Amino acid sequence: MITVFLVDDHEVVRRGVADLLDAQDDLEVVGGAGSVAEALARIPALRPRVAVLDVRLPDGTGIELCRELRSRMPELACLMLTSFTDEQAMFDAVLAGASGYVIKDVRGNDIVNAVREVGSGRSLLDGRAASALMNRFRTRTEAPDPLAELTAKEREVLGYIGEGLTNREIGQRMFLAEKTVKNYVSALLSKLGMQRRVQAAVLANKVKSEEAG
């Protein structure tokens, strides 16, 4: 069972998403809040697996909330759910540790699947969010080939990250210890100038798409 906490200043939105998620056998909404302060007071006590956060809140931002929650609860997966497609906000959310960023006008089933994905330890970004992030990464990357410094093993690990695999799953694919995979991940993130696994996932999928095209 994946437990979920909803943060949105619109009660109608919270209720709608809660009804959608509670209708699933494997998802359970354990609480909700309409502000950063209320969320910080309730989430640590309830210990949900996933926090669905609106980006814009009356007393702050979901991005700031995500950063604070992740510092207190590293195991918490944060899914940003918003009606805004601001590139900077998407970029900042990923840097804050968000596992996914979904635009509110997606279908209900997409939101359900997104919660399942991040609740299972995977990273997720919808198409528009991924495109926006890649635009940001492109401007920050001076080398024509951002993967030029990676070893063959690191490139292979990056590919699996792009598929959303965990370190354990990558280790099983490559016949490596989970700790060894973790070292590869740390090394490739450092070489790419990235801090978060989801950033690498976006880059891996973009490279894969360009190679296929």
UniProtKB/TrEMBL annotation:
Q: Which UniProt keywords apply?
A: DNA-binding, Phosphoprotein, Transcription, Transcription regulation
Source organism, top-level taxon? Bacteria
Q: Does the keyword Ribosomal protein apply?
A: no
Ranges for domain HTH luxR-type: 143-208
Name positions with the PTM 4-aspartylphosphate.
Answer: 54
Q: Which residues form the signal peptide?
A: none
Q: What is this protein called?
A: Response regulator transcription factor
> Which InterPro entries does this UniProt record tie to the protein?
CheY-like_superfamily (IPR011006), NreC/VraR/RcsB-like_REC (IPR058245), Sig_transdc_resp-reg_C-effctor (IPR016032), Sig_transdc_resp-reg_receiver (IPR001789), Tscrpt_reg_LuxR_C (IPR000792), WalR-like (IPR039420)
**Domain (Response regulatory): residue spans on this chain:** 3-119
Q: Which organism is it from?
A: Actinomycetospora lemnae
CDD domains (UniProt xref): LuxR_C_like, REC_NarL-like
Tell me if DNA-binding is a UniProt keyword of this record: yes
Q: Pfam families under this entry? A: GerE, Response_reg
